[in-house]
């Protein structure tokens, strides 16, 4: 059953002659929607950390990567470069616009229980924290970012991300 769910979320599927796949920018739109609807601040740094936390818990719960982009080891924590490039002009201000693709807002369908449950968990747990506060969590000595940063690795290691997901699910983050 999980495999069928994942096929509809992740695997290439054809819709109106176009192949679709989940990207970090699609998932970013899910967080932006929540922030706009709930009038919560969502800086680019905060968005990056929320994406990381969701990716980690999704990966831990399902054994599957939510999207294919890798998290880079930047000074202030894990970063997806495409998301950074799209929202960097907001600086430390709150993002108030969706990522558009040919004039269309694309996001992940939240009818899938596992995705909706996990994004709700991450959003509810961290929405009131700032990007700086979330960055501090990613800088803890037990994190994938910390290990990659200390070892001068350009990207976070998947097995360390799984450990972060376990810790976030079990309440340490």
What does it look like?
The chain has 173 residues and is mainly alpha-helical. The chain has one domain (24-169). Helix content is 52%, strand content 9%. The protein has helices spanning 2-9, 24-38, 44-62, 81-87, 113-126, 131-138, 144-150, 158-169; strands at 13-15, 18-20, 72-74, 77-79, 100-101, 104-105. Strands 1-2 form a two-stranded antiparallel ribbon. Strands 3-4 form a two-stranded antiparallel sheet. Strands 5-6 form a two-stranded antiparallel sheet. A hairpin with a 2-residue loop joins strand 1 (13-15) and strand 2 (18-20). It is globular, with a radius of gyration of 15 Å. The two termini are 29 Å apart. Mean pLDDT is 88; it is low at 1-19.
At a glance:
Helix 3 packs across helix 8 (158-169).
Give the helices and strands, then pairings:
Layout lengths: L1 H8 L3 E3 L2 E3 L3 H15 L5 H19 L9 E3 L2 E3 L1 H7 L12 E2 L2 E2 L7 H14 L4 H8 L5 H7 L7 H12 L4
Antiparallel strand pairs: 1-2, 3-4, 5-6
Helix pairs in contact: 2-3, 3-5, 3-6, 3-8
């Amino acid at each position: 059953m999980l495999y069928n769910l994942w096929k509809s979320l992740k695997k290439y599927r054809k819709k109106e002659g176009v192949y679709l796949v989940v990207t970090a920018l699609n998932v970013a739109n899910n967080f932006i929607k929540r922030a706009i609807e709930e009038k919560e601040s969502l800086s680019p740094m905060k968005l990056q950390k929320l994406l990381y936390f969701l990716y980690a818990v999704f990966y831990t719960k399902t054994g599957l990567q939510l999207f294919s982009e890798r998290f880079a080891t930047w000074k202030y924590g894990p970063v997806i470069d495409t998301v950074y490039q799209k929202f960097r002009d907001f600086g430390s201000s709150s993002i108030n616009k969706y990522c558009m693709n040919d004039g269309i807002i694309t996001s992940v369908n939240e009818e899938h229980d596992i995705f909706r449950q996990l994004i709700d968990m991450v959003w509810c747990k961290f929405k009131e924290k700032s990007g700086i506060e979330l960055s501090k969590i990613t800088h803890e000595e037990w994190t994938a970012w910390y290990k990659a940063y200390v070892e001068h690795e350009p990207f976070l290691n998947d097995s360390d991300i799984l450990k972060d997901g376990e810790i976030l699910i079990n309440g340490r983050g």
